[in-house]
Write a structure and sequence with these properties.
Number of domains: 1
Order of helices and strands: EHHEHEHEEH
Shape: globular
Number of strands: 5
Strand order of the largest sheet: 2-1-3-4-5
Bound molecules: 1,3,4-trihydroxy-5-OXO-cyclohexanecarboxylic acid
Strand content: 15-25%
CATH class: Alpha Beta
Length: 147
C-alpha cells in the first residue's frame, strides 16, 4: 500500500441520508464510505473510515493516528466551527490534514464560515457532497506521491 489514510467524521454525519437532504444530499455515510473504499483501492491507499458524535473521541483518534497513518481527512461536522481541542490535536500530530465538507460552508450561516480545522489543514474541499471525500483521497494520493 502506498499510504494509509484515516477519514474522520464528526457529529450528526451518521444521520446522512435523512438529515436535511436538501443541504447534505440523499447519500448515507455508508454510501460515502463504500465509494471511498472503491476509490482508495484504485489509488492504492488503505483506508480507515470512522464517525463519532463525541469531541474527545475524535481528539483521541487524531492523537492515535501519529505513526499509524500517513494522511488525515477530516469532516468535523459542527466541531469544525467550535473545537480548539480538535485543532490542537491536528497540530500536535505530524500528519497532513485535508478538510472536507459536504456543503459549501461559505454559502451558509455566518457561524459556519469560520473553521478551526482549516488552521491546521493543507486545504479544504467543500460543496461537492460525498464526492468531496473522493476528491480528498485523490489529493491524499498526490501528497504521498510528491512526498
Ligand atoms: C458539515 C458542515 C457543518 O457546518 C455542519 O455542522 C455539519 C456538516 C458539512 O459537511 O457540510 O455537520 O461539516
Amino acid at each position: 500500500m502506498a499510504g494509509k489514510v484515516l477519514v474522520l467524521n464528526g457529529p450528526n454525519l451518521n444521520m446522512l441520508g435523512t438529515r436535511e437532504p436538501d443541504v447534505y444530499g440523499a447519500e448515507t455515510l455508508n454510501d460515502i464510505e463504500a465509494k471511498c473504499r472503491a476509490r482508495a483501492s484504485v489509488l492504492g491507499l488503505s483506508l480507515d473510515f470512522r464517525q463519532s458524535n463525541t469531541e474527545g473521541e475524535l481528539v483521541d483518534w487524531v492523537q492515535q493516528a501519529q505513526g499509524a497513518f500517513d494522511v488525515l481527512i477530516v469532516n468535523a461536522g459542527a466541531y469544525t466551527h467550535t473545537s480548539v481541542a480538535l485543532l490542537d490535536a491536528i497540530k500536535a500530530v505530524d500528519l497532513p490534514c485535508i478538510e472536507v465538507h459536504l456543503s459549501n460552508i461559505h454559502q451558509r450561516e455566518e457561524f459556519r464560515r469560520h473553521s478551526y480545522v482549516s488552521k491546521a489543514a493543507i486545504g479544504m474541499i467543500a460543496g461537492f457532497g460525498g464526492f468531496g471525500y473522493e476528491m480528498a483521497l485523490e489529493a491524499a494520493a498526490r501528497l504521498l506521491t510528491n512526498k
